[in-house]
Amino acid sequence: MRTPTLLLALLSGLLLLCFLPFAVVETLPYVELLAYASVVLPIYLSIERKQLELVSLLLVATLTHLVKSTCENFEGVCMSSYSDLQWNTLSRVVTIYSILHLALNAGLSKKNLEIAGPVILLTSLLAVFSDIEVVFIVVVVALALVRIMGSLNQYYVADLVAFLVSSGLALVFYNLSQDGERRFFQLLYSLAFAFNGGIRRRQKDQTHFLQLLSTKESGYTLISGQRIDLQ
Prior knowledge:
The protein has one domain (3-229). It is globular, with a radius of gyration of 19 Å. It is mainly alpha-helical. The protein starts with a helix and ends with a strand. β3 (220-223) and β4 (226-229) form a beta hairpin. It is built from 10 helices and 4 strands, in the order ααααααααααββββ. The strands form 2 sheets. The protein has a two-stranded antiparallel sheet.
């Protein structure tokens, strides 16, 4: 069994485990911590694709989420300067930044994304400190979707749909995270990262959809972004 399949099985197990607090409320803090293990899948896939910038972003974002969860659920082990550092605000900024980065990573070339980096950071800060994160996210995602729709033949449709669905649901649970649904957000957030790195078609035979599908198995090759059916 391939590594991505095993990691996807781990993710499925974590998803089932996330429903346990509905039956046993006392397990919520521990299940939240276990949900962070879901980052193993996108980290593995990003390293395989040599997309180390996504690995770095995911690790930093996950660290801020993990510190926040630990301090809110286990006050006795929280660092004394947690409140002074305004970690909750810091976590929100990093989360919004990563979501906007993923959206634009899907719609822009690598060079254009690097140019847009400072703009994404400024947008994240404005979104958090103006308390209208949703508005900024919707505008940026809409712009990214327009760009994607203009060059749809460059994407794996299944991966693109999975990315949009996982990202959309992650945003829903992000807004519900204060109501104890942080564990679902973390799982969907990890899935969004996992799908994001492999949604573009490339100039060679390539596995996609979490390395579960292959362009060879689909019966076509890719030449200059166009589909050429095999004889």
